[in-house]
Here is the input.
Amino acid sequence: MKNWLLGLMLATGLAQAEPMILTGTLTHADHNTYREVPFEVPAGTEAIYVKVSHDGQDDNTVIDLGMYDPFGFRGWSGGNKTEFYISQFDATPSYRPGPILHGTWHLILGLPNVSIGVETDFRAEITLINSENRGNSTEFHTPISTERGWYRGDFHAHTGHSDGSCTSLAGNKVPCPVHKTLDAALEAGLDFVSVTDHNTLTHQATLRELAPYYDTIAVIAGREVTTFNGHANVFSANQPTDFQLGSNRLPTLSHLYQQVEDQNALISINHPGRPTGAECMGCGWNPPGNDYSRVDAIEIVNTPQYLLHETFDHPLSGIPFWEQKLEQGYRIIGIGGSDNHEPDVDYGDPKYRFAPVTVVKADSLSQADILDAVRVGRIYLDLALEPGRLIDIEARNGNQSGFMGDTLTANQGDRIELTFITEQAEGLSLELITSSGLTIEHGELQVNQSESQHQMSYTSDGERSWVRANLRDSDGRLVMVSNPVFINFD
Ligand SMILES: [Zn+2]
Ligand SMILES: [Zn+2]
Here is the structure.
């Protein structure tokens, strides 16, 4: 219980917002009555976070909680919660999400027990969240782990809030409840999963309800902005993002990027190599007038591609598109997405429901740190689904050093030293991928040991360059994809 309460407080990212403090004293005269605590909510408020405490525990004083907005009842949690969150789109169970109307709201204190002779001081902290202080208000729980480490997960899954389906108890194909996706992700051994239903964000209310129970997997708020000219996942936004590209609501993609940036959210172009057609409408990526400097990530491997072609490096994968953007000088991080639409489909092993796995080096297992890790880019894709198998790149130029995702600077003639690090990759072949015109001297690229380091280097021409690596199995199949080290990228 304590953890959960603390979790709710931290999970709403309220460190940035100053609460208003309302206090009062209760005596036996209040026994079996309701105290109404009014407070003003200004226009522009997006969410309200309430935390109530009192000093009457030793006297067995009990305070039940509820809330009325200017027009009526918003919920009642009795004595079962001491803090709660209400926003336009999601709310702590017991409370109703909906418009945060400006005007006078009333926190209701129900008082089933205040003993004779007792004086209890109560304190209500009420935080009003708006566009200035919203922080990570879609973070559903405290870090699942506070350790820095490699975490395995999936950035793309659908539920019954869009076109995700599964088999009902009576055997019918039905919109699939959100918990089935979380159960399947746990069964697949993932550390995190993002639910990214098409355009809507109604699943976020369900995730807020489920998160305290699913406290062994980090749940990331997402939605798949789905236009007729391509799809893109937006992560950690707490407000809607428009998707009607070309209409008055979303005249150009710049407007979408602005909405993403205003919410400190993150955007990833999905399955850009897939063709648009009757089978997948608007799936190819061809929006007019795109500014790729505002794109954080690209989904370079998307599973339906694998299921169709039984290879992850089919020409229609997102990898050629991504590498073309790298060549054009855009520092964009490659991630993966299962695009799971059927969490109960049987592929023979639960892990295949969430392929590929994206492995990120993050400061903790939490939404905020996983998404920060995407910004940093120390990330690789595990296509063969082998936990413990690792690829990493360390780069040095004199005193500068970095890993995958980092940018180093180099003058003409500088020697760039690269170390390709692998673990549990025996029998695989290391394949170097570089920006065009780059030659890297190297020796044997077969990985023979459980932990290996391959040193290589090249001389910078002072221009922009990038280097990354793949691992392939003995049949030549692509099994691991690293992100690049960037040289002289802005
Ligand atoms: Zn899509
Ligand atoms: Zn999708």
